[in-house]
Protein 1
Amino acid sequence: GENVEQHPSTLSVQEGDSAVIKCTYSDSASNYFPWYKQELGKRPQLIIDIRSNVGEKKDQRIAVTLNKTAKHFSLHITETQPEDSAVYFCAASSGGYQKVTFGIGTKLQVIP
Amino acid sequence: SAVISQKPSRDICQRGTSLTIQCQVDSQVTMMFWYRQQPGQSLTLIATANQGSEATYESGFVIDKFPISRPNLTFSTLTVSNMSPEDSSIYLCSVDTSVADTQYFGPGTRLTVL
């Protein structure tokens, strides 16, 4: 089955700096890669996703890149703000109602 | 995205008892999923619930311990049976909207077993 590795497990950045979280996956059949943000005591919320036919996707301060050959994908947050502080999960799926496999999560702390 | 609700939001239960968690969606969805999230941990899939068929369980989870119902396309239940303190966790349902393979999560049920 799919295995998703995520690092770092914790990340502290100064407000205004960029944050990068990296993930690798094992199953070459995976073609859908969502990222979730989970604030303390809240449900995971989808923040951005990317499919295997796209190399990069941006949404305001958030971007995701995908290297299918190397089987890794990354989340980039620019101009970080204190409200970006949360746990971020990467995930991989082969789509078509198949299960989603999650990484271990990265706890991001943005220091004002 | 779908609007998903769960009941109860939290509960404190005694060892040996069972708790049924309900998940309700405001639109028809093909697949519903049940996850467990232990404190500070990632999301672990318990089972996939497809309407009209038996749930599919992941390794380490069995039907006798976590029976699931999926009576229609907007509702599912997960029962945590014969509970022990090790079952203390957050249980979340999610749905696949079928639009773009995206899963959306319910608010979760925080279970404490004494």
Protein 2
Amino acid sequence: NAGVMQNPRHLVRRRGQEARLRCSPMKGHSHVYWYRQLPEEGLKFMVYLQKENIIDESGMPKERFSAEFPKEGPSILRIQQVVRGDSAAYFCASSPEGKGYTFGSGTRLTVV
Amino acid sequence: GENVEQHPSTLSVQEGDSAVIKCTYSDSASNYFPWYKQELGKGPQLIIDIRSNVGEKKDQRIAVTLNKTAKHFSLHITETQPEDSAVYFCAVYWVGGYQKVTFGTGTKLQVIP
């Protein structure tokens, strides 16, 4: 049973470009969470999704950021018009109902 | 919302000694308390967890204790080894209507050979 799969592992974007981060949850997990981690800092909650629904997006910036978890396919975190401050590691986690998280290996976004 | 404090932020121990990391939380409704280990360049990995109906849980060299009254829980690592060096995060949440986890700020543990 593969773990949580995130891709790409590393992503370099120029300022103003779009970044698309993908997350495939573990088989049987219906809950997906996205977290952002700045260097030497903790994990900051961004958004919690279930299939086709955004449950809680209170941690996501109102502009330029969006997330989806379609009926088929991976969850996508999309950042439009990236700026240098978006450079961070973005982690996806999944869980079944009522259980702990399993994290992916993260996508390290660098904006140049 | 939940407020989680984690101490210390950094911890250095000699190989073979014990390490203790403590977290306090604010919401008495919280009922699930996992600990994660994050090695450099990797995602956090669940290493041990405890639910609110249990006071202590042990898995080989790792143990977690929970004091619901005082609203704190601790990670204990005995006989530390260099491979225990990592950043450790506590987490708190309520397994109920929907899950939303609050993480501690992390403890960077260095085990000195």
